[in-house]
Amino acid sequence: MDIARIREAIPVTRNLVYMNTGWSGPSPQRVTQRINDQLAYEMERGPATLDALPRSRAVHEELSRAVAGLLHAPEESIALTQSTTHGLVTVVNGLDWRAGDEVVTCSLEHPSVLLPSLLLQKSHGVRVRIADLDPQDDKATLLSKLEAQLSPRTRLVFLSHIQFSNGLRLPAREVAQMAHRRGAFLLLDGAQCAGQIALDMGEMDCDFYAMPGHKWLMGPDGTGALYLRPELIPQVAPRYPAHGAVESWDVATGAVTLQTASPRKFRLSTTSTALEAGMAEAIAFQQELGSHEIEARAMALAARLMRTLKSIPGLRLTCPEDPELGSALVTFAVAGKEPRQVVEMLWGRGIAARQVPTPPAVRLCTAFFNTEEEVERVGAVLAELAGSA
Ligand SMILES: Cc1ncc(COP(=O)(O)O)c(C=O)c1O
Fold first, then answer.
1. pTM of the predicted model, to two decimals?
2. Domains in the chain: ranges and CATH
3. N or C: which end of the chain has fewer CB within 10 A?
């Protein structure tokens, strides 16, 4: 990878050390340009003309194709969404729940996983079973803790593929097999994965996978996608039905023929062509670099950062060190300092980070566009901060 050239295409790299891609990734210049071009077209040529409408449809199709390529999934398995959470809730609220059904999730989860699960308890009498995972658990322990929560009543195993608070990467394929042995579906939250690691839906054997456009893919806020195993689409009802949700209807008789097998049924009415164009451009940018190459570089930078942090007295890693279970989300606590204080101190030195809750820590994301020099600079600043307790 020609990192100098790549960084020239990502303006933020000229201004600061950006290590908060897990919250929102900085867009390459060409992504913002594509959004601007579409908005300018709509302003000058009109947004809903006989020329503009097919242009919007073409962008929508381009994005569906791009997501399908990124996930190694068929195009008819992709629904475009406005965020990860939108995709997750589409599945959770679209399944046909019965009282006594069970959802299995874990104690480290993001609210976008926990809250829709917990709300099912109230709305449908579903029981939520929570595996008490520790980011330092080994793979066998993680799997056996999850297995212990499964039962013949489990309908859905619902987990983040990579945990936002500590970077733990769950063994997706093994979890999918475990869920399927019990006749349950697996819904994965891929918020921290798309654009960070190489993904292949067939290989993972996952049933539903939700992702954003704005984090590691570095596209605009307000974009995302949901993969649904094609044969399961009929089992997920559209809870916000717009015209894509039906094949035909008759006002006189009230007859409605539902769209069953197409992910079009989840599409809300009007979406932003400009943002969809931006996400498509962001995926194209990354596909030119290669998903495996992107993942390898992010992981190498994370390993380097972990080595640096471990050598600083008073710093303790809270993320997994085993690369199989870890990711490019590096988290750590500083003795005698609140994570918030450390984040503010880093920001005072031009380094963008965030605090995370489970366990309380500071999070630094090493994206492919970050550099070894940036990692060393962050290490030097933290050594100074840790020494000034
Ligand atoms: C694991 C996880 N899930 C869900 C979300 C929310 O993502 P979105 O804003 O795309 O709904 C985040 C955002 O940080 C996340 O890290």
1. 0.97
2. 3-26+290-387 (3.90.1150.10), 31-287 (3.40.640.10)
3. C
